[in-house]
């Protein structure tokens, strides 16, 4: 998650049930975030155990798929039924919000109502264009319609209402948010390895096999004192391996997906949290906000981002800062941003700064497996060699601390850094429908009934009486009351 954090301390394998605050102690963002992560992990685990990999409530299940053939040259579409659904314990909701009604201007005609429900082209996190060939539904039947569910961080740059304006413009934003993203996708029959007339269980198994990665890429990190040490010895201990002057949270993130031969990465010393809202794009010149608060320097790499770019996960080349115009609040980049990103104010465009300075012409670094790769100030990373498929957004977080002159990374008893899978970007999938022709589909969703059932008054009274002594005993054990 791209946010201004000190570190991420939650590990499911530690089996912590809560964070316990102690009096007179400093309270850190990591403690609060770990408490939220513990609760989220528990709730989603319970939901997944009870519901299964995916399912919806029988009386209000969402994501019913209806194929709508195109008419008059319009492309085919899918209607997405309103309601709730769970995927790997994550709650998602396809109910389309009812727009608020504004006070009408005198004499103005009423505004047309938004169509309901969501469709293939209008789904909130799809950002699909009917005129873009790659965004249309497959032209060959049959194919599978499935859900893709993941999460991402949202800050005040994307959602200005998160900022408390009473704190004043000189203050940074406060807390970020985590947003659940759902997207309806398709995959052709042949790509799933299916043929003939497969049954629902066969289709579900094929999707699970297609979406899974047998072996996720692994990375290790360490701090090693560089030979060309130039730090001030009054500020940095001579024996320090991490030579930075400030505590950092390094983020190593995969940019271009694929095997190691084509995969690329980028890194940030502040978890990719340094961003600048974009006001206007004029060729290679980009007008920004708050340029005077966080400097951009010539030679640094930036990524032009907006909500659609983030949701589509289709990476574009990074751009280099060529000139900084502080009085004008703008920067000139090495090239004009791509036509499909950064120009629509409703998509909240911004620049994200990355901190590597060397790289390929498109601003990213090549994944080189089996060797230590230096980042800066003694911090190095190691991509394990293997037949791995890197995915855009795979990331690893590496806290570096001046107090120890080292990075915080798990090690074996001999002190060797351990290889770790990506720490963020978990993605879940669920089948929705098998489309066999125009207007023809088979529903693949799973439904569940509520656990609560109506009982007879007498039985209800008996259950209540039986529960009272047990509840009292539990209260005494919890409070220490031995009476």
Automatic annotation (TrEMBL):
Sequence segments annotated as region (Disordered): 106-133, 457-483
Pfam families xrefs: DUF6519
Superkingdom, natural source: Bacteria
Name by which UniProt lists this protein: Uncharacterized protein
The organism's taxonomic lineage, starting at the top: Bacteria, Bacillati, Actinomycetota, Actinomycetes, Micromonosporales
């Amino acid at each position: 998650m791209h946010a201004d954090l000190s570190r991420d301390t939650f590990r499911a394998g530690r089996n912590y049930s809560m964070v316990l605050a102690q009096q007179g102690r400093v309270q850190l963002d990591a403690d609060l975030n770990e408490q939220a992560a513990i609760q989220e992990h528990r709730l989603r685990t319970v939901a997944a155990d009870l519901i299964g990999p995916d399912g919806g409530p029988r009386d209000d299940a969402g994501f019913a798929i209806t194929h709508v053939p195109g008419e008059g040259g319009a492309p085919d579409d899918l209607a997405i039924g309103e309601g709730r659904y769970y995927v790997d314990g994550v709650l998602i909701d396809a109910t389309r919000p009812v727009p608020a009604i504004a006070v009408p201007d005198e004499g103005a005609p009423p505004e047309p109502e938004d169509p309901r429900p969501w469709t293939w082209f209008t789904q909130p996190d799809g950002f699909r264009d009917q005129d873009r060939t790659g965004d249309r539904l497959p032209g060959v039947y049959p194919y599978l319609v499935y859900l893709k569910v993941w999460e991402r961080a949202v800050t005040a740059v994307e959602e200005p209402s998160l900022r408390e304006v009473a704190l004043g413009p000189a203050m940074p934003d406060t807390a970020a948010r985590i947003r659940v993203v759902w997207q309806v996708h398709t995959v052709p029959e042949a790509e799933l390895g299916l043929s003939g007339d497969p049954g629902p269980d066969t289709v579900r198994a094929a999707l699970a096999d297609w979406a899974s990665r047998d072996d996720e890429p692994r990375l290790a990190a360490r701090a090693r004192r560089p030979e060309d040490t130039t730090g001030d010895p009054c500020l940095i201990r001579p024996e320090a391996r991490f030579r930075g002057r400030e505590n950092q949270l390094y983020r190593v993130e995969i940019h271009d997906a694929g095997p190691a031969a084509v995969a690329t990465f980028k890194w940030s010393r502040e978890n990719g949290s340094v961003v600048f809202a974009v006001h206007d794009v004029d060729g290679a010149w980009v007008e920004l906000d708050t340029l005077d608060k966080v400097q951009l320097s010539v030679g640094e790499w930036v990524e032009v981002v907006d909500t659609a770019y983030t949701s589509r996960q289709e990476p574009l080349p990074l751009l280099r800062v060529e000139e900084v115009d502080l009085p004008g609040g703008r920067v000139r980049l090495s090239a004009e941003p791509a036509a499909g990103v950064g120009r629509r104010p409703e998509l909240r465009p911004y620049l994200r700064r990355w901190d590597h300075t060397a790289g390929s012409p498109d601003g990213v670094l090549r994944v080189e497996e089996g060797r230590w790769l230096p980042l800066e100030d003694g911090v190095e990373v190691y991509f394990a060699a293997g037949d791995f498929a890197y995915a855009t957004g795979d990331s690893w977080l590496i806290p570096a601390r001046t107090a120890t002159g080292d990075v915080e990374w798990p090690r074996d008893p001999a002190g060797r850094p351990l290889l770790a899978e990506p720490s963020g970007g978990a993605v879940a999938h669920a089948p929705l429908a098998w489309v066999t022709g125009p207007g023809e589909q088979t529903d693949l969703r799973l439904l569940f009934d509520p656990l609560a059932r109506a009982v007879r008054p007498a039985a209800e009274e008996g259950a209540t009486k039986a529960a009272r002594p047990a509840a009292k005993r539990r209260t005494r054990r919890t409070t220490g009351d031995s009476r």
